[in-house]
Target: DUF3592 domain-containing protein
Amino acid sequence: METQMGAVSAAFYFLSQHPFLALPLYPLAALAIGGLLARITGWSGWFCLGIPGLVLGAMSPFFGSAVNAIFLNAAGTTGSAVIVHSEETSSTLNDSAIWYYEAVVRTADGRDVETSFDTMSASIYPWRNQILIPPEGERFMVKYVPGFPRNIAIMVDQSPYGRKRRIAEDREPVETAAAKLAAAPDNARFRDTYRDALTVFIAAHGKDADPTLLAEYRAKLAALGNAPAR
Model:
């Protein structure tokens, strides 16, 4: 079973790491399936499967890594990794440079496996409209299939850098509400909005945010006339 899943993971790795090389494989595979079905059923319309195959091939450079990440999250084992080298390439994506990364994966059974990826091919879970690569030298969580551990999904929300980013994003509504109340201290609606923002943040990050920040937010919430969430 491990060998079979390793082969599947290797296939996903190829499709996500080399989307342009893999592009013709989609319509060819679809045509092969269509030809087989046409031979079995005697209906030549099955050859039209080549059209969706061509569409999938065209989309693969943009969604191949996301599909790979979904597969690894569902079927993979938890491990960790560290980016040991990063360098800017001459290629660009949306006017931003594409970076190349080398990493060392530590598997659940203690093996160290070398792997590499770039900005476009990185498989990140959960998928967002952002490419969130971990900082070089900082350990992060991954999922991989033991039969092919080079293929990894970066688990953003389980990694320290991802949690820090989420906390920073969730602080923005609190700080915005605080600024509005500071601009209009007598505005009851601004006061309620600030109270709600503090309550939501404390409830969401009562266990993973900086203790000093939590103490500050709880004190501010108490000053507004509400007990801090626990």
